[in-house]
Amino acid sequence: MSLKLRLTLLALGALLLASIVLIGLARVAQDVSETRFEDLMLASKAQLWDRIIATEMERMEAGVQSMTRNRGAIAALYEGDRQALQDEARPTFNRLSSSGTLTGMQVVDGDARILFSTTGDFSGRTTKPLVRAVLEERNVMRGVQRDEDGTLVSTLVFPMYDRGQVVGATVFMRHMDAPLAEMAAADGSLNLLLDGRGNVEHRSYDPEENRLLDRIELDLPALGEQRVARALGDERAYSVVTHPVRAPDGEALAHFVSVSDFTESFGRQAVINRIAVASSVIVLLALAILIYWYTQRSFAPLLRAVSAADAIAQGDLSQELADTTRNDETGRLSHAMQAMLTQLRSMIEAINDATRQVASAAEQVSATTQQTDSGMRRQHQEIEQIATAMNEMTQTTREVASSA
């Protein structure tokens, strides 16, 4: 594997790792934002619900004096006369119910026995813990309770006094349909009250006109817990907020469920998420292409230097390196190789000159040798001639001597 490939893979790996980290951080940031949004939804729904219930209580408080100043009702309560109490309390209830202040009313004696009730023919002791608490503590108390028939109601309980003694208590009640309708009017949501088994007790819409529960499936938490969830139905997206409805003593009585259509909001979020993913992929590809291009560009002079070194190794000293003016390491390497190549050329030229000089001297030596050899051959011939002449002289001398 070449160095260029290793560096390219390293850069791409680092880029991929950085992208994964950034995507992870973005996902964490989105989860945090969604958690904050859910917390805000829970808090806003809870505050709005509490404010509406408090407003319901304030409306009922306006009619408290109609009973606390009703001497006939107090006397009948003290004597335990059911008929007389009904005759005195019924007009008060009719007046308050016609104005929309109440939907139900009860009067109990000091032992919490029901003497008058507009919500049903109840007898015996009341099952409302709030009533017993008012008789014990002698204070006005308010909160959500269940009536004797199990109906969930907003309840205002206040003691009834006769000459400074508590002789009983009056219970003002209001159905929960009105608070749900006010919630719907406040934020455009669809609201329900469900018991612990998931049965609908009250709702803010007409089930014949809006079949909400047919479109979505509610996933309720345990009674007393709260949750924000998403639900899909009929190509719509809903935010489902579940908040517990509690009695004043903290007991969870029911689920308050508020369903809001967040299709557009969730759709925009989905589009933003897709754009973010597509942008990340495009940026990643662009950076990968840029890294590849820059690596190719950066390694091109080095590759040319390697090719030149290979050619020089094979004896080709005609190479010229064109990247000697760069200011980076590759430029310095090319400059050094060019200087080395120039030096090699100078050395080779010097060697060639010396070789030519040696060859010229050798030729001169060879010529001198040939001349010496020719002179020696001439001297040899001359010596042979002298020797022949001497032989001839000797022969002549012998002949002369022989003649004498």
Instruction: Determine and state the CATH class of the domain at 3-60 and 179-269.
Output: Alpha Beta
Uncertain spans, ≥5 residues at pLDDT below 50? Answer: none
Q: So how many helices?
A: 9
Biggest β-sheet strands, sense, barrel = 5 strands, antiparallel
Q: What is the percentage of strand-forming residues?
A: 15-25%
CATH architecture of the domain at 3-60 and 179-269: 2-Layer Sandwich
Give helix % range: 55-70%
Distance between the termini: 112 Å
Could you say which structural class the secondary elements and strand pairing correspond to? alpha+beta
Element pattern in H and E = HHHHEEHEEEHEEHEEEHH
- CATH fold type of the domain at 3-60 and 179-269: Beta-Lactamase
Mean pLDDT: 85
Radius of gyration: 58 Å
Shape: rod-shaped
SS elements, strand count:
10
Strand arrangement, largest sheet?
A: 2-1-5-4-3
Write the SSE topology.
Layout: H1 3-61, H2 65-68, H3 71-79, H4 82-98, E1 104-109, E2 114-117, H5 129-137, E3 141-146, E4 152-162, E5 165-175, H6 177-187, E6 190-194, E7 200-203, H7 212-215, E8 227-233, E9 236-246, E10 252-261, H8 263-313, H9 329-403
Helix pairs in contact: 1-8, 3-4, 8-9
